[in-house]
Hints:
CATH topology: Rossmann fold
Mean pLDDT: 85
Structural class: alpha/beta
Radius of gyration: 21 Å
Oligomer: single chain
Number of strands: 12
CATH superfamily: Class I glutamine amidotransferase (GATase) domain
Strand content: 5-15%
Low-confidence stretches: 1-9, 17-66
Amino acid sequence: MEVAPATGRLPSATDRMADLPEEIETADRVGLDVVGIGGHQRAASLECAPAVIPTAAAARTNNNLVENKVMKVVMILTSHDQLGDTGRKTGFWLEELAAPYYVFKEAGYEITLASPEGGQPPLDPKSNEPAFQTEDTRRFEADAEAREALANTVKLADISQADFDTVFYPGGHGPMWDLAESPVSAALIESFLAANKPVALVCHAPGVLRHVKTPNGRPLVEGKKVTGFTNSEEAAVGLTDVVPFLVEDELQAKGGIYSKGPDWGPYFVQDGLLITGQNPASSAGAARRLVEELAMSA
């Protein structure tokens, strides 16, 4: 993100939260088929015929396994650091990584960070300026474990949905150039959804959905409730003519049922397994909704 020439700055974390109600629109959740335990289960034995395990005991065992399972999330960051042809730097937006990171951490998740090129992804320098720092960004900067993970992201091509329960895409302007045009990223998102695993993207990252398809070849967002960085927010930071496309326009062009909240205020929507957030202030809420979705489907 960049400072708007007209205003001199983006709303700070404190400014944008003042007097803005949290408007959250949630679509009906997708029904899930739950595999239950039948009248009995059979346990194999080395020396005797299969023994019958009572239904109640089997259910308790199954519930314990679910409760003890450590959820695994992969967070996909950009590797792109050039803000068009302006000569300025871009990358991922720190709050959109840090806030969800600690939502997942506090939920007991195992977190993997990935990027197209692997290694240290570029940070949008604006996102770490004092006006945009938050408690979570400062916590991340002081967290040696988090900084080590960030310095050594896994290559996107080495990520398999089979190894994770969900995927989360932080934004920043960088993803509009690399992840939005990445067939590897598109295929990864498609594979998570095909496996009935939820996907979340915030701010500019919903633009990454532009080439993601349904199994029948239609745009993924067609007919789905979505949100993302608004045209007015892009205009406020003075980058309407710099970015390769506008997130709001692109989601609508692909048939998405686009909605938005007040500029810079927290707003996210869910449609089935797809969760999208509007801007940096929406990242923690979108992550919490993702945790709730996984808890419901466990």
